[in-house]
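Forum > Structural Biology > Help requests

Title: Can anyone predict the 3D structure of DUF1844 domain-containing protein?

Hi all, first post here. I have the sequence for DUF1844 domain-containing protein but no way to get a structure on my laptop. I'd be grateful if someone could post the structure tokens.
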Amino acid sequence: MTDDKKAHTEDAGGKPQTSGSPPLPTINFATFIFSLNSSALVQLGMMEDPMTGQKTKNLPMAKQTIDVISMLEEKTRGNLDGDEAAMIKNILYDLRILYVKEKG
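Reply #1:
Sure, ran it for you. Structure tokens for DUF1844 domain-containing protein below:
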């Protein structure tokens, strides 16, 4: 099979992906919020950074990420279904508790 005949798709960043690449998850509100949650957990030092494999803390960035999720909660209020609203509320609660523990 030549390169011209390979199936091409685009990843979330718009970069071409060949059919041999693992599929990316469907982007929806939940996966977007879970992605921000994962970023905040990395920034809080709770998870390894996938790029470095190291656990490092960056509390100012964690606070900013938590604030972004909070802003999204505010701006989408009334437009989310019950599961989405509960998910974002629970994620914010957990992240805020973790942030306070790390900050203290």
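Strands lie at 8-10, 16-18. Residues 30 and 84 are 7 Å apart (CA to CA).
Shout if anything looks off.
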